[in-house]
Structure formats: C-alpha cells, structure tokens
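Q: what sequence does this backbone want?
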C-alpha cells in the first residue's frame, strides 16, 4: 500500500469522479483507475462501487477513506517539517480564509508574508467557516479562519472582534435609531447567508437567547446582493460593523445592535496537538503584528 494510491482514492471521492481526480492530480484518468485498483488488490476488498459513470464508497471504502485522509495529513506534516530544515527559502503554507472580510483582515498579512518569504508557496482556499473547520480537521490546511467559539480540538489566535449592526431600509421605522436590541426586530423578515456560514448561527443563537426565532425570507452567499435586498425592502440583515461599512449603499441604514454578549469574533485556528509548520507560525506572528491595536 502506497501513499499515492491512497491519495488517488481520496481525490476520487473528494472530486466526485475519476476524471476530475485525474485533473487534480495532474495525471490521466487510466492512471487514477489503476492506482485505485492496485489499492483494492493490496487490501483485498472493494473500495468503490461503480455505477455507470459514478462511484460511491463501499463500507470498507469508507473506513479506508477516513484513515487515508489522516495518513496523508501526517505525510504532509512530515514534508512540512523537513521544509523547516531548509528555513523558509522554500516550502508551502496552506491557508483557509473566509469568503468575506479577508480583504481587510488578511490581505495585509498576505502581502507582508510574500515580501519577506517569496520562496514559500501559499496555497489558499476560501469557504465559509464551517467548511474551513472541516478542511482543518482533515489536515488539508495548516491554518483556518473561523468564528469563536471553536471546538476544543483546535487551538486559536485572536484576529478581530466586531459588534453587529442591523441593516434596514432607509424608510424603516427603526432606521433612525442609534442602537436597538434584537427583540425589536423579532417581527421583521431576516435575510441570512447561505448554509455553511457561522455568522448565520451567531445571529440565530442571539435571537434564541432573546426568545424568538426569526422568519427567514432569503439567503445568499453575496454580501452586496444581501444589502441590495435590504434596500429593496425585502427584510433586514445583520453584519459585522466593518463589513457593513465597506458596503454602504444609499437607502440602507446601519443601526448598531445593543447586544454586548453577541460579537463577531474572528480567529485563526490550527489542530490542537498537530504539527504546525514554521511557515504557519510565522504567519501567526505577522497576523499579530498586523492586527495589534485593532480591537482584535
């Protein structure tokens, strides 16, 4: 059993088929098929059930897939540790950053890191916080940005904390308020993000603590579209203050939520007890430097 055959299986499952797996691995579809068959021969059990052009894991396949992801993560850790012996003249940093807010929170860190360590490859993925935590858990990224609180399996470093603001149509009866508590929005339709964004859960948990469940009229993965829906009078939205300020539109008012126990708090996470590459530790140091004195 070889790591390359394990990687072939993992990519077939992750990419949803042999052809896209071949593209991800920079090889051909027959080579991927051959690697998976060799793994099945080595283990003596079928791992994939082939149905037409689709494949799904067998019971044995699910066990091997789960273990293979961990073994590959350990292999990546080994290579990363060896890269440390060469200093930061080369190597790779695997980052998972959020779809929203990175231009303010992480672009300066990115530029500083690149200027100081041009030989280090930065592999970047962007997703909602839930998905980023999954990738970190599987060892597919070294650092991931997510919202507090975080699971005990992760360690974290503070990035920035922001109060939440309600976005209201300009003519709304509450639009001229300086601040307001969540219960005053209990009967308003809410516009939330798509599933996978922890900001949704932050909002829903805050509403639950205040004794109501909001009526959700729309969801979107685009902040600009959400703001436009508010402007059109479809409902209200809730954003961290700095994100709302970045996307001011005429006809949309921002009202600070009077909810001191509900704060959008971004952090950088890594696996507790896992190996943290030197490049990742340097990124954390630069992030501390960049965000010193910003309230995070």
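A:
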């Amino acid at each position: 059993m070889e790591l390359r055959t394990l990687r072939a299986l993992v990519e077939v499952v992750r990419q949803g088929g042999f052809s896209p797996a071949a593209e991800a691995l920079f090889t051909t579809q027959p080579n991927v098929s051959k690697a998976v068959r060799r793994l099945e021969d080595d283990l003596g059990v079928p791992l994939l059930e082939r149905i037409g052009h689709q494949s799904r894991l067998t019971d044995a396949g699910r066990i091997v897939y789960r273990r293979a992801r961990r073994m590959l993560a350990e292999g990546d850790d080994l290579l990363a540790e060896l890269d440390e012996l060469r200093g930061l003249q080369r190597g790779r940093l695997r980052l998972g950053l959020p779809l929203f807010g990175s231009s303010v929170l992480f672009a300066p860190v990115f530029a500083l890191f690149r200027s100081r360590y041009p030989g280090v490859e930065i592999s970047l993925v962007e997703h909602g916080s839930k998905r980023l935590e999954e990738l970190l858990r599987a060892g597919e990224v070294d650092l991931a940005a997510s919202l507090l609180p975080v699971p005990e399996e992760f360690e974290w470093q503070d990035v920035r904390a922001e109060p939440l603001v309600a976005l209201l149509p300009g003519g709304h009866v509450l639009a001229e308020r300086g601040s307001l508590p969540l219960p005053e929005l209990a009967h308003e339709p809410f516009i939330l993000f798509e599933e996978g964004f922890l900001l949704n859960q932050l909002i829903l948990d805050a509403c639950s603590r205040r004794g109501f469940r909001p009526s959700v009229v729309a969801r979107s993965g685009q902040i600009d579209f959400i703001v436009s829906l508010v402007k059109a009078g479809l409902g209200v939205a809730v954003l961290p203050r700095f994100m709302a300020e970045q996307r001011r539109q005429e006809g949309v008012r921002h009202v600070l939520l009077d909810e001191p126990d509900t704060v959008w708090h971004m952090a950088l996470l890594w696996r507790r007890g896992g190996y943290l590459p030197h490049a990742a530790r340097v990124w954390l140091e630069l992030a501390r430097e960049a965000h010193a004195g910003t309230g995070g």
